[in-house]
# Entry
Amino acid sequence: MLLFGFGRLIYVTVLLINAVCVLSEDRFLARIGWGRAQPEPGFGSSYDNTSVKAKTVNLITSVRTVMRIPLIVINAVIIIYELILG
# Structure
């Protein structure tokens, strides 16, 4: 018996992508210091664009930009599938 099949994997993936896309940069990410607009670095220091934090912020922004329209379609297909086949 397969408890965690391919369909469940698709649901989990879509839900995780939805969670990333719903994150508000102004309300949530900026409060924890993960906003796109970082404060100017102090004298003698520089902002590191290669850090894990900067790459994660860029990944979140990229996913939100690229997956906006496909997620609308994918969510609509999943909702219709669940309504018809339950």
